[in-house]
Amino acid sequence: MSKKFLHAVLLLLPAAQAQDARQIVAESQKRAQSQSQQYEGTLEVIGSANKVSIKHWIFDRFGSFGSSKAILRFAAPPEVKGVALLIVNHPDRASDQWMWIPSLERDRRVSVQDRSTRFFGTDFSFEDLEERDVNQFDYRLLGEETVDGQPCWKIESKPKESKSSQYTSVVLVIRQDIYLAIQIENYTKDKLIRRIHYSDIQQSDSIWTGRTVEVFDATRNSRTVLKLEKLRYNIPLKDADFTIEALRRG
Amino acid sequence: MANAPLARALLPLLLSTCAAQDFQQRGFLETSATIYPQAAPNDSGHIIGESLLRYEASYKVRPWLRLSGAIDASFDTHHQVERSLHLDWQDRSLRRPALSAREFKVTISRGKFTAELGKQFIRWGKADILNPTDRFAPKDFLTVTDAGFLPITAARLIYDTGADSLDLVWQPRFTPSRTPLLNERWTVLPDSITGIPLRDLGSEFPGRSSFGARWNHIGAGYEFSASFFDGFNSLPLFRGSSSGSAESVDVQRFYPALRLYGADAAIPLHWFTVKTEAAYYTSPDKQQDEYVIYVIQFERQIKELSIVAGYAGDAVTSHTPTLQFSPELGFARAILAHAQYTIDSNRSVAMDLAVRQNGQGSWLRSTYSQTFGQHWRATIGVAWIRGDPADFLGQYHRNSYGILAVRYSF
Question: Does the beta-carbon distance from B377 to A108 stay under 8 Å?
């Protein structure tokens, strides 16, 4: 092998790896793609003192990834029952979000400058509720390792300049057999902020899904466990069900 | 068909399951004690106990048809709440009804159209600190600094495409804002009539209906609305006259015609969201001032701290000498702010502030709130009011208070 050829290979290697990593994430996104999604979520928020609070919400999504719309309605505890959030995602900018608060009898546009804010006392931040579009990040394959007994790819993603994010990098762990992301570690300047782990992997309407989502907030040492129940994909939802008016009328 | 009896037997079960899924209910029972350290000239009471039971239910009869209802049952120790137990629909009484229909409406939605008929809440505007365009939202001002909204009886039609919505409202019957009672501390009487008994002759209500229209547009990185209202001001003017014996003064409320042109906008910027709202109040019957009220507020969420702060201003374009109860003008020409910090999933602290620009009136309220389990919440707070007796806020300088409230939600 000539020295020139080796030099060319070394130069091309990072680009090839980036391509591979991007292709893996794109395939993962493609396999998770659905026209709509609906589930009932049970959340256990476990604070640093092991104090547990339980919440329930109903989640509906229409469309997918960059241009999806979602409505999340709290069903319990009684105090927040009826509170709802409308998220309108855009492929080229931060999502628009409105909150319906029954006690105020009005919708409120939610400011999204600091999307690191926790969502209603859970360990999800507002940004974690947004869907990530593959085109908004750059990727690098870190290697392969076994996680939860399954061979996985470990991929680092960094937001492009145009994408504003609280995280400077994200490490995705994607199962090689089904192209499903089973762990997402979110970092800000090399410091772990949140780890999202998916377990209880099942196929629903031909889409592999982690039915249990555990979010660990490393800064607060607290965690939230979300269990997805009555999960359905590609159900006949309408665009008209994802407007401010639809948010209000319930 | 062999399975027909079985199907007939299972049908009620199936229907009841569907009904359970489409039926929603919630409510709470809240009991509070408000402590006023100072007595007022017309009100020597120091402690007020209040209880409110609210029950709300809705039932989706068909995917396009929903029935909603809510009832409030109230009681207090200060006679701000009526003692008779009839179910009040009108919300026109001077005192708060003991039993009132808070909401009773039918919602019909077909594609981009939604129609709502009955007793309902209609809220317009985007600002949080003051809403000058919010014309179908009368308030209960029995405690001026802590006013709740009153429902109205109306027919509403909304066409919403997602990016644009048109909201048309027709209110056949007028609902007034509830003003402070003359013999209680949130009515501050002029020195000139101190000691003269007042006879409350009630209210003279307008007979005509009100109408309003609002168009809202959501663009890329902004949202704005334009609105129009033609009807009556829910805030009253007062007509005073000496009674025959001249030993007392008769007071009656009446409601001037109001035509309003409004606009509001929200613009999320990199560091904060700007929300602004303005309305031009005109008086077709020339019975009240004509003026503009405008609000500009800045909003920012920093981790668990939410801050909303801004300025509300006014400009009177035509003055008519009247005696008017107008908290909207009273909270204008002021810096207004709200901040809330979420300590954890169970605890939060909040602060509200209003400071008149001339420094003659200020109001500061801070509260601490904590939940216990899935149903209970306790709130403790203090409100501090200072200022000049000639100022709208300052006149309530004797009404600083402490409050303790316990709520059970279900």
Answer: no
pLDDT score recorded for residue A112: 63
Reduced 3-state DSSP string for chain B: CCCHHHHHHHHHHHHHHHHHHHEEEEEEEEEEEEECCCCECCECCCEEEEEEEEEEEEEEEECCEEEEEEEEEEEECCCCECCCCCEECCCCCCCECCEEEEEEEEEEEECCEEEEEEEECCCCCCCCCCCCCCCCCCEECCCHHHCEECCEEEEEEEEECCCEEEEEEEECCCCCCECCCCCCCCCCCCHHHCCCCEEEEEEECCCCCEEEEEEEEEECCEEEEEEEEEEECCCCEEEEEECCCCCCEEEEEECCEEEEEEEEEEEECCCCEEEEEEEEEECCCCCCCEEEEEEEEEEEEECCEEEEEEEEEEEEEECCCCEECCHHHHCCCEEEEEEEEECCCCEEEEEEEEEECCCCEEEEEEEEEEEECCCEEEEEEEEEEEECCCCCCHHHCCCCEEEEEEEEEC
Residue B14, in any domain of the structure: no
Minimal Cα distance from B105: which residue of A?
A249
Which among A47, A78, A104 is the nearest to B374, CB-wise?
A78
Q: How far is A125 from chain B (nearest CA, A)?
A: 9
Q: Please check whether residue B110 touches A, CB under 8 A.
A: no
pLDDT band at B246 (very low <50, low <70, confident <90, very high): low
Q: How many structural domains is chain B composed of?
A: 1
Break chain A into its structural domains and give their ranges: 5-249
- ipTM of this complex: 0.85
* Closest Cβ opposite residue A245 in set B56, B121, B165: B165
Q: Is the CATH code 2.50.20.10 the one for domain A5-249?
A: yes
Nearest CA in chain B to A223: B345
Flag if B220 and A104 touch (Cβ within 8 Å): no
User: pTM for this one?
Assistant: 0.87
> B201: domain CATH number?
2.40.160.10
Per-residue pLDDT tens for A43-99?
Answer: 999 877 778 889 999 999 999 877 889 999 999 999 889 999 998 888 777 778 899
Q: What is the pLDDT of residue B352?
A: 97
CB-closest option in B28, B300, B410 to A113: B300
A117 vs B149: CB contact, 8 Å cut-off?
Answer: no
Domain region containing B100:
23-409
Q: Which of A19-23, A198-202, A208-212 has the lowest mean pLDDT?
A: A19-23
Residues of A in contact with B162 (CB under 8 A): 239-240, 242-243
Q: Given CB atoms, is B370 within the 8 Å cutoff of chain A?
A: no
